[in-house]
Amino acid sequence: MMDRKKILEEGLLEKYLLDELSAEESQQISIAIANNEDLKKKFELLEKDFEKMALENVIEPPTEIKMRLIEQLENSKVKTMPKTWLYTAASLALLFLLSSFWMFNRWKKAETNFESLQNQTTVLQERLNALEENYLLTNQRLKTINGPQTIPLILHGNDLVPNSRAVAYVNHENKMVVVNAQGLPELPNNSTYQMWSDVDGEMIDMGLLPTDEELITLKYIDKAESLNITIEPAGGNDHPTVEKLIAYVTL
Amino acid sequence: MQHHQDDIEIINRLSKKDKEALYLLYDKYSGALYGVILRMCRNQVLAEDLLQETFIKIWQKIDSYDASKGRFYTWAYRIAKNLTLNSLRKPDLLIQTEELGVDIKKEDLQPEMDFSELNGAIGKLEPHHQEAISLVYFRGYTHREAYEEMGVPLGTFKSYIRQALQLLRESYKHELIIIWLLLETF
Fold it and tell me: Cβ contacts of residue A20 below 8 Å, gap of 6+?
């Protein structure tokens, strides 16, 4: 520990107060003061005197310095930094949330669109299949009725069904008969048109003729001399009702 | 001592980061500290910056102040003095001089402003006592630099300081007695 006498003689209290000493010396003086009441009192008086002298020699700084100090403390970067970070983080989180929501909606929409496209594709495929079938059938029929071996025959309705007609296409080569009965008047539900072949005076059943179909394929009967249409009870008859013969054509 | 107790309460508030406490200390000590800084650096613009910097440092370092080791003002004075001397040693100082050392403070940078005149008790001392105290306290000289500046032996300089402090002591003691007598009279 530093000697009290030496401290006072060397003026070390003054130097200590004025911060002229090395860190090590300062430490020693500080300990000496703490452990010696007299030194402590002397140092306190010295501090008071210097402080008093300083207060007697005040130079008032411009008032703006205090304003600058206040401004610097209030807008301290150290203090605002965490807030800024917090705002940034919150903004990013919000942005992420919003973009996620937007993406989710987009995804949902895309999924719905995809599903509806899939459905449309299925519908289109079905329609295509139907059209293809239809085309093949139509093409088949066209070939049937438009071939060089096909004979078109018109069956004019008599007084029972005036101004009406049916068309029969007969192909003797292929042994095929196709009839369009749409030119005949519609019948009540309890009756139907039926076609017969006359072979040596005997009427042979060829099939029923519904009026709602474009082309009806019937049984081809060998050696038929004429084709005849009668009105029969619904479901057809084994023998023709001659009184209800409405049209015929000879081959 | 009442003085000192008030400071301790304000400093406790300052430790809890109460800005108002700093502004109170500013109101109380900025003039004394500015008086020291301005006399030391002799440049008003620089002195203003240094004063602001001093209080920012007080704000930041208040936890390292130990009231049992000395008065708040002594602690603040040391901060102001060190900041000022450091800024005068910096080579990027606005004022260009050929010698960039501690010597810079010996140049009279603003001759139109005379800070050498001191008020109060010290102003009534004899010139050599005034100068000795002024050099170490208001000008930031070390004892070694100061006695060379005054051109007297170190021993003589030391006795100047001691005598000057003694005279100040007595002067302030008399003031106390006068105040005491005044208080007793009424």
Answer: B136, B142, B143
Chain A residues with at least one Cβ partner in B under 8 Å: 11, 14-15, 17-20, 30, 33-34, 43-62, 65-66, 68-70, 72-74
Chain B residues with beta carbon closer than 8 angstroms to that of A55: 31-32
What pLDDT does residue B108 have? 44
Q: How many residues does chain A have?
A: 251
Q: Which of A17, A56, A73 sits opposite B120 (nearest CB)?
A: A56
What is the model's pTM?
Answer: 0.56
The Cα angle at residue B43 between residues B41 and B45, in degrees rounded to 5: 125
The pLDDT value recorded for residue B107 is: 45
Whether the predicted pLDDT of B35 surpasses 60:
yes
pLDDT mean across residues, chain A: 89
Taking phi first (over 0 means left), then psi (-120 to 50 degrees means alpha), and beta for anything else, what does residue B140 get? left
Distance of residue A91 Cα from the nearest chain B Cα, in angstroms: 30
User: B168 and A15 in contact by Cβ < 8 A?
Assistant: no
Q: Are strands A191-199 and A202-209 parallel, antiparallel or unpaired?
A: antiparallel
Q: From residue B49, how far is each of A60, A92, B33, B54, B112 by CA, in Å?
A: 14, 39, 12, 9, 20
Q: How far is B74 from chain A (nearest CA, A)?
A: 7
Q: B165 CA to chain A: closest CA distance, Å?
A: 8
The type of residue at A99 is S
The answer to whether ipTM exceeds 0.90 is no
User: What is the reported pLDDT for A110?
Assistant: 92
Helix and strand numbers (H, E) in chain B are 8, 0
Size of interface A-B (CB pairs under 8 A): 119
Residue A60 three-state SS: coil
**Do A58 and B35 count as a contact with CB atoms less than 8 A apart?**
yes
Q: What are the chain A neighbours of B68 within 8 Å (beta carbons)?
A: 34
Give per-residue pLDDT as tens, B62-83. Answer: 999 998 999 999 999 999 999 9
Q: Is B104 helix (H, G, I), strand (E, B) or coil?
A: helix
| pLDDT number for residue A77 | 54
Q: What is the number of alpha carbons within 13 Å of residue A38 lying toward its C-beta?
A: 5
Query: CA A245 to CA A229: how far, in whole Å?
Result: 6
Q: How far is A2 from chain B (nearest CA, A)?
A: 17
